[in-house]
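Renewal narrative, Specific Aim 1. Our central claim is that a sequence can be written position by position from structural information alone. The example that follows is taken directly from our test logs and has not been curated for this report. It begins with the structure tokens describing the chain, in the order in which they were read.
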């Protein structure tokens, strides 16, 4: 049996890495052009493709700004707040379904 190489969605569909959106956050990250970070960064973007298509905020807690004047703590704090809000919405929705 031969294993096919590449990137695949959870349902087994092959994903062309060039079709995965590149958020502005990634463009401004030190890891953007680092070959050792290529796969984990791509997988994070692939995991959030649907959310990005819906206009939702892209989250990456491994973000390292390539500009030292960028306030990394503030950006990560904003991501955490967004993450918390998304989780609150999800839990509220789940609770409604149980009732």
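The sequence written for that structure reads:
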């Amino acid at each position: 049996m031969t294993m096919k190489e590449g990137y695949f969605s959870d349902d087994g569909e092959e994903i062309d890495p060039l079709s995965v959106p590149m958020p502005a956050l990634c463009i401004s990250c030190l890891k953007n052009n680092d070959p050792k970070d290529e796969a984990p960064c791509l997988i994070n973007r692939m995991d959030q493709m649907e959310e990005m298509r819906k206009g939702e905020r892209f989250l990456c807690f491994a973000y390292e700004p390539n500009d030292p004047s960028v306030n990394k703590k503030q950006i990560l704090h904003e991501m955490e707040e967004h993450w918390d809000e998304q989780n609150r919405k999800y839990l509220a929705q789940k609770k409604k379904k149980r009732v």
